[in-house]
Amino acid sequence: MTGNSAIHNPQSTISITFTLNGSPISVEIDAADRLLDTLRYRLGLTGTKEGCGEGECGACTVYLDGLPVNSCLVPAYQVRGRRVETVESLPPARLDPLLTHGATQCGACTPGVAMTSCWIIDHPDLLATHSVRELLAGNLCRCTGYDGILDGISAAMQSRP
Amino acid sequence: MRRPLSPVYSPTVQRLEGLAKLTGRERYVDDLPLEGFLWGATVRSPAPRGRITAIHFDPAIDWSQFTIVDSRDVPGPNTIALIESDQPVLASGYVRHVHEAIVLLAHPDRTALRRAAAAVQIDVAPEPAVTDFRVAPRPDQIQYGDDNVLKHLQISKGDVERALAAAPIVVEGVYETGAQEHVYLEPQGMIAALEGDVLVVRGSMQCPYYILKALRHALGRDEGRVRVIQTPTGGGFGGKEEYPSTIALHAALLTLKSGKPVKIVYDRGEDMAATTKRHPSLVRHRTGVTPDGRLLAQDIEVVMDGGAYVTLSPVVLSRGIIHAAGPYACDHVRIDGRAMFTNAVPFGAFRGFGAPQTHFANERHMDRVAARLGLDPAELRRRNLLRDEESTATGQVIRDGTDRRAVLEHALTLADYDNKRAAHARDNVSSAVTRRGIGIATFHHGAGFTGSGEVMLASRLDVAGLADGSIEIRSANIEMGQGTLTVFTALAAQRLGLDPAHVRIAEADTARVPNSGPTVASRTAMVVGRLVERACDDLRRRLDMDEATGDALRRALRDWHEKHPGAELVGQAKYEPPPGVVWDDVRYRGDAYGTFGWGAYVAEVEVDLRTYETRVIDFVAVQEVGTVLHEVLARGQVQGGVAQAIGWALLEDCRWKDGAMVNAQLTNYLIPTSDDLPRIRVAFLETPYAYGAQGAKGLGELPMDGPAPAIVNAVAAATGADPCVIPLTPERLMMISDFGMRIAASKGQDSTP
User: Fold this and answer.
1) Could you tell me if B639 and B680 are in contact, meaning their C-beta atoms sit under 8 angstroms apart?
2) Does the residue A75 lie in any domain?
3) One domain, residues A55 and A20
4) Other CB atoms within 10 Å distance of the CB of residue B260
5) CA distance B694 to chain A (A)
6) Contacts of A90 in chain B (CB under 8 A)
7) ipTM reported for the complex surpasses 0.85
8) How high is the pLDDT of residue B1?
9) How many domains does chain B fold into?
10) B532 touches chain A (CB under 8 A)
11) Which positions ≥6 away from B4 have C-beta within 8 Å?
12) Which of A95, A131, A142 sits opposite B671 (nearest CB)?
């Protein structure tokens, strides 16, 4: 719905194909569309949130080829042929430690926090060089003071096989 | 003192909507499926004050594709109904602040809409604006009454002048706090649509009935033709108390003119620039004290920046001055408060509602009194904290059975206060580049509306017994992250012996739920939670089964519906004030609140002498808030409130030009990240409050009150500087340090930032 714009720029619509949450998908986009808008408004994956639109808050975090990125800063055409995973791909059972420890309150930052948290949990080797506080610093949360998130990550890492 | 938690409230009862939020399934206003709608945008004033002389629509754009609304399209009175009706829905011929809404546009394509909004040019013939609330206005700047005072309030107890004249020691101080942006992570947004003849507005909000009132007033629609529904709300902190009425009206006007659904969602920049913020403040203290530290007299002047319209400033000022003398016993108190008109975006509700500002001043001042007397700041507070049967500044006699000294001692013990003070005194001498310090604050926060406010709200709540044997709570109080859904469900489940799975909560829809009041003022769990319990009792009474619980109750509900097919069985509750609470709204005397929460916070900081950065390295938050209803949720409220207050104290610096925020983006308005904060250590003392749900008192705002003064007191202890202005950014600290003073002196400038 947004951005498609027969009105303002009819020539700019392009088609891209990429892998979304494990399945190939083709979508028409405007050349100027952000990945965030493509996910939310073209594909209906509204789990990914816009908190600031300038790469500060991390609410729009997705994995691009396995690495967390701010989807508000990624032009949609750049994901052509690549692999994108969104919060909708996370198995709910993985999120249980976050829930138990109070990692979510209002929930607006939460999908991004969940993505970054799971990425930290999946990469324990990072903790040799970085603290969890440093790794989480790209995700702003205004409700929790972060302790509930940190506790959830810590519990999840301890319960890993 | 800590009671074991009852099973219903054990942390194994998870936040009800938590998994939906973690998996991204929760649908906020911008996530709702919507067909055939228009996006709405707002064209705003470029100037702080003046007459609108022309509105130019760029002829390069085909405006016939756009729905265009201005003040002439407002069918009723062009004002946003709140305390005063002075704020227009859309400016009509005259503007009083930058970013004041003038023209609304709607279009199906958001990109085209943004281009069009930028192509509307507003000409304003400028008039002299007021941009500094601390300076007396010139005659040509007067725009409200004959002195620009939006509200003037006074509290008087005893004889301050005589007590100050007789006091052996008088300590003076001036304290300032800056504006603060809420930064709820979900920006403001509303959808308006016509469903038949009914205008339905959905969106992110704290107070559905405030919006209903504003829509009825300005649109001239009767209650049956307007309906307001809250969507899951991604944070509020007060920022979604009054402001959403404006967006709701804007979306509604565009819908009424176009006949189509209209969605307005602010981006972060518009949200930060155009919506409310915490009131900036200036507080002067003059305190008489004995050499051994007994408070003899407190003379306090509070000035707040209200911005360009009255909005909620009178009640923010009210709560501010009521808390200004702190949780201390003093026989002679005078507090004079004024909220000033300025040509700034109106300041509004923000967690704490005026009290964080006055607590900052008072707690910072207590440390300066202690320094003058050569007393440990903890000892000064020990000697003055209220005891039961002593009275507050308004003459409210405290007799709640809580031990405020125990709150302080518990915090000091957890923080290892005495040992750390000694260690800092020893180690700071030998450290070349860092200084450590520890600071405290003791404070209180009145729970629920001030004075007669709860009586005037006359909140009502329903609990319906359904045909499947479950119950439905019908309340206008909303979930914005603080845990309303979970707490209400747990309260009803416990009251009726039901599995929480058999308790539902109705959507906050003004067509379906009674007005249980706004979700503000730390009132939801305490006041409205009590209504949940009483409506549960009333439901059983209607079944003639006062004691029924669990399966027996569920059978009775099913049986009743079999006998009364299609009928509704509804238990009701209406607010009743606690006995003996008496408030004089004219003289500002008496019981300002039914009860208070009490806190003692201890902050330890490390200051880098090279960069003047302050890092909070330990934080202990001890509070007495009555019964803790849900430990995980309650701890989260405290940790989140402390984090928000650490931001206010050290980082969050609104920069202004012509009364508008110029750093309206998260790139240069900094809120704390995980890496900026220490673990926030939380402890509760619990003395149940007889008139709150399960003994609960208000909790949500208290944690905003203590951190700023505790941190700045710690910085003072660490550095020997005397900071009295927040946010205490590195730049501000440098300018009041010896180094900064030398720079200022060499430039011949005043060192005060």
Assistant:
1) yes
2) yes
3) yes
4) 17
5) 22
6) 22-23
7) yes
8) 38
9) 3
10) no
11) none
12) A142
